[in-house]
Design goal:
- The chain has about 425 residues and is an alpha/beta fold.
- It has helices at about 10-15, 40-45, 60-75, 85-95, 110-125, 140-145, 165-175, 190, 240, 250-275, 280-290, 295-310, 330-335, 355-365, 395-400, 415-425; strands spanning about 80-85, 105, 130, 150-155, 180-185, 200-205, 220-225, 315-320, 345-350, 370, 380, 405-410.
- The strands form two sheets. Strands 1-7-6-5-4-2-3 form a seven-stranded mixed beta sheet, sandwiched between helices. It has a five-stranded mixed beta sheet with strand order 8-9-12-11-10.
- Strand 5, helix 8 (about 190) and strand 6 (about 200-205) form a beta-alpha-beta unit.
- It is globular.
- The termini are far apart.
- The chain binds pyridoxal-5'-phosphate.
- Pyridoxal-5'-phosphate binds next to helix 4 and helix 5.
Length: about 425
């Protein structure tokens, strides 16, 4: 049957799941750790990756796979998997193709947790990272590569710096060196940007944010475009292009093709060994959230633009960053990659610096102080004293986070109510 091309709105609601006659209309929660087989031989085929099927929910579960298939459809990928968190997704995405002695080029403007994962924890595993400016020129990017470089990593819209990555440029340089570009698309979501259309090869998500959208379930996702040809630089990717002894010598690219090798390996090896699996309950909640993602993103962006404009005109506000705001440093890149809207997060500094920022946040009644971001309820955070507190001032600056930065995540409440709340809090400083 020819594949019918569906729009993003339809995929949010119905992607990945088409129940047959008499089956549940909503994605069923398969709350089972294990699955029954008639013979040991049947089950043995699954362990040898000769047949596909479920045997233990640490590796794969039908509810998780259905929701992953929806996100895969939204991103336009070839295969996807859910993980227990966004952190696990980014760890797996890199560790699946990089080992001790290898090197990765990453944008310096990334989520604080990812920075720590790369610069501290994965460095302890022997993987070296070079952090480059998200605004790096082609020459500066080139200079960051080494013979042992295995991937390039960046965020579509960085959390919380709100820089917009030139995906096409990063992809071009990555491909020239025979390595994939991994994009964390958490803030834009596939509703506003589909990185594969601009040359990215792997997309990751913290589904904890807009995808769930209600602050209910921590989760992550990895999607493969299926277009990166690992065999063209086979010497760089022995894990995909040479036999896996822990699976009776199968070679992933041969058995599963370039469309399936990467996610199959991440599931068969990394999920088996690390077990960062998402629970079926969380996957169900994520699936519910996805059904309204397209409607919510529109409102998040509408509210954020109104608030960014209001803040920019306010006498007590020192500066505002919002890539959807005309005049913003990243406005033109945002127009190119996200013509329909960027995200619901606005960063700004109030006059009076850190002390004034704290006073302002305390006075808000609708915007709650949370380490969270990107859900239906408005929240705000002072990263320098929370998510990014492990960084010194130089690292903060490289990550695009000034000490006075307030990250204000617009929910989907009424924008006039939010502006009134902001005005009252600004009046208190
Ligand atoms: C929150 C976040 C993460 C980490 O995700 P968790 O689900 O909290 O583990 C990674 N990347 C970005 C851009 C994020 O905003």
């Amino acid at each position: 049957m020819a594949e019918i091309k569906r729009s993003i709105e339809t995929l949010c609601v119905q992607g990945g799941y088409s129940p047959k006659n008499g089956e549940p209309r909503q994605i069923p929660i398969i709350q089972s750790t294990t699955f029954k087989y008639a013979t040991s031989e049947d089950m043995g085929k699954l362990f040898d990756l000769e047949a596909s099927g479920y045997f233990y929910s640490r590796l794969q579960n039908p509810t998780c796979d259905t929701v992953a298939a929806r996100i895969c459809a939204l991103e336009g990928g070839s295969a996807a998997m859910l993980t227990s968190s966004g952190q696990a997704a980014n760890f797996f995405a890199v560790f699946n193709i990089a080992s001790a002695g290898d090197h990765v080029v990453a944008s310096s403007a990334i989520y604080g947790g990812t920075y720590n994962l790369f610069a501290v924890t994965m460095k302890r595993m022997g993987i070296d990272f070079t952090f480059v400016s998200p605004d790096a020129s082609e020459e500066e990017l080139e200079a960051a590569f080494r013979p042992e470089t295995k991937a390039v990593f960046g965020e579509t819209i960085a959390n919380p710096a709100l820089t917009v990555l030139d995906i096409e440029l990063f992809a071009k340089v990555a491909h020239r060196h025979g390595v994939p570009l991994i994009i964390d698309n958490t803030f834009a979501t596939p509703v506003n940007c589909r990185p594969f259309e601009w040359g990215a090869d792997i997309v990751t998500h913290s589904t904890t944010k807009y995808m769930d959208g209600h602050g209910s379930a921590v989760g992550g996702c990895i999607v493969d475009s299926g277009r990166f040809d690992w065999t063209k630089s086979a010497e760089k990717f022995p894990g995909l292009c040479t036999p896996d002894d822990s699976y009776h010598g199968i070679t992933y690219v041969e058995r599963f093709g370039i469309e399936g090798a990467y996610i199959t390996k991440a599931t068969a090896q990394l999920m088996r060994d690390f077990g960062c699996t998402q629970s079926p309950q969380s996957a169900f909640i994520l699936g519910l959230g996805l059904e309204s993602l397209h409607v919510r993103m529109e409102r998040h962006c509408e509210n954020a633009l109104a608030i960014a404009k209001h803040l920019a005109a306010h006498e007590k506000v020192e500066w505002v960053t919002y890539p959807g705001l005309e005049g913003d440093k990243y406005y033109h890149l945002a127009e190119k990659y996200m013509p329909n809207g960027t995200c619901g997060v606005v960063s700004f500094g109030v006059k009076g610096g850190r002390a004034a920022a704290e006073k302002f946040m305390k006075a808000l009644t609708l915007g709650a102080i949370e380490t969270h971001v990107a859900d239906a309820r408005t929240c705000c955070l002072h990263p320098a004293s929370a998510t990014h507190r492990q960084m010194n001032d130089d690292e903060l600056r490289a990550a695009g986070v000034s000490p006075d930065l307030i990250r204000y995540s617009c929910g989907i409440e009424n924008k006039d109510d939010l502006i009134a709340d902001i005005d009252a809090a600004l009046a208190s400083i």
